[in-house]
Fold this protein.
Amino acid sequence: MSSLRANQLKSEITAMPTWLRRPIGKASELSNVQRIIKQRQIHTICEEGRCPNRGECYAQKTATFLLMGPTCTRSCAFCQVDKGHAPMPLDPEEPQKVAEAVQLLGLRYVVLTSVARDDLPDQGAGWFVKTMEAIRQINPETQIEVLTPDFYGEYQRIATIAKAKPACYNHNIETVRRLTGKVRRGAKYDRSLQVLQIVKEIDPTIPTKSGLMLGHGETVEEVIATLADLRQVDCDRLTIGQYMRPSLEHLSVQKYWTPAEFDELGAIAIQMGFSHVRSAPLVRSSYHAGEEE
């Protein structure tokens, strides 16, 4: 990155409102997790995405593992994860490595997410299940939430994971209908709703969850319409957070929503029937996920 562009991004970060700045957490908690995942050559979205809440989550014995490598076959305009059409082959030992990391860290609640792997025959659905099985074998008390790609809405791929009975099935719709093409390249708004609907059709007892990032130019009315669409497919849980631009190659922030606005949207979501709602500027998909059980 040129010095001009680096200074431009630095100025943009400096201009962020004060409510988006927070300490990263205790160095000891961060380094312990970082050491264990580095030794096993596995990944967490907490680190790959440099989540602002990772220190807090680690202290609460919660972490989100990123399965199937650090390279995604999609190219969403908001996401910090590396993109590429030739991701690395799957590590056959990854499920066991993740299970061992869960044990070493004493995690009570684990979220399994992944890059999109459109290059695989089942796009990675079976890999989620293998990892769940490995975790359960040596950590039978640990609850497992999944945060999956859309699998192009293919029923059997979604069913493969739902039938493994995760503690919660999360798939993020990310933004409002009007902005989906711009923000989520390769994704479709209705397809994301379909993923959540299929899970409920397969097993109505599995809680479903979705999340929104605000700051791409959406209106309050569009956000509320999206919440209504999620409730229409019986989505139970919701996260709403502020989009923060990872680099100058990503979409710029159109608006920083205030904490009061997040509180108002959270209250509306509760009134609409969501059973668990996290709505605040620094909320991310897995924020306080274990407290919902």
In short: The two ends are 44 Å apart (CA to CA). The beta strands are 43-44, 62-67, 71-72, 82-83, 109-114, 143-147, 168-170, 208-214, 237-242, 276-279. The chain has a mean pLDDT of 85. The domain at 26-292 is CATH 3.20.20.70 (TIM Barrel).
